[in-house]
Each structure stands twice: as structure tokens, then as C-alpha cells.
Amino acid sequence: MSATGHDYAITRTLDAPVEKVWAAWTDTESYGRWASAEEVVLDVRPGGAWSSVMVIPGGARIPLTGSYTEVVPNERLVMGMNVPGRDEPVLMALDLTPDGDRTKITLSQTFDRAEDRDQSEQGSNMLLDGLTRFLAAA
Length: 138
Hints:
Elements: E1 6-14, H1 18-26, H2 28-34, E2 37-42, E3 49-55, E4 61-72, E5 76-81, E6 90-99, E7 102-111, H3 114-137
Antiparallel strand pairs: 1-7, 2-3, 3-4, 4-5, 5-6, 6-7
Helix pairs in contact: 1-2
């Protein structure tokens, strides 16, 4: 546990160059396909808004909104997600490191409660599983 709360970091190495991984996260059509999202809007710039409707196993639809706080193409993307009942968005950092024709990707977040961290970590693993499948099929 960090001094500010409960955090996690998931790191994987993907079989795709960093530019392809970046495009998968920042291209509306690509993101919708691998993230099981519909109605995707991505304005990838600092202060730009994003929104989507996540379709989770079982068919439930969860609308999500937020904005980008940091954008460094092919390196770092920090996204804030609006959460009902919270004054400040929950931030998620995506860091990319080239490894030849592969990419090391790290997703990280910090939460006030362990339960929130655990739920988000599970969701992030599902996202990375979908991204891995998408990149393998591309």
C-alpha cells in the first residue's frame, strides 16, 4: 500500500510495436473492438474528453466518461474517469516502453479503498486480455 492509498500496477509485454499499441488505445474504432465498448468517443489530448459504453460479460452496459490529463504519444496516457459520488476523477496511467518489435505496457491506479482497487485491477486485466487478443489477430 502506498502512502496515498491502495494501488496496483499491471505490466505485460505485448507482441506489437509501441506505435500499434498506442493506436489501439487512441483510435476510436480499434478501442471499441478490443475493449468491448460501444459509442466510443476519444479526444486524445490534455483536457480532451472520452466516453464509451462498456459491454461486460452477461450483456450489461456501463456508460463511462472522463478526460485525458496527460498525453505523450507512444509513451504515456493518463486518463481520468468520472465516478458517481466522487468530486475528483479516478486516474489511470498507461505507460508504454518499446522492446524491439514488442511493447512493455503498464497500467496503474491508486484508490482509497482496497475493494475499489481490486475491482479496477480485475477490469484492467480484462482490458489487457482483450488488447492482447486484438493485437494477435491484427
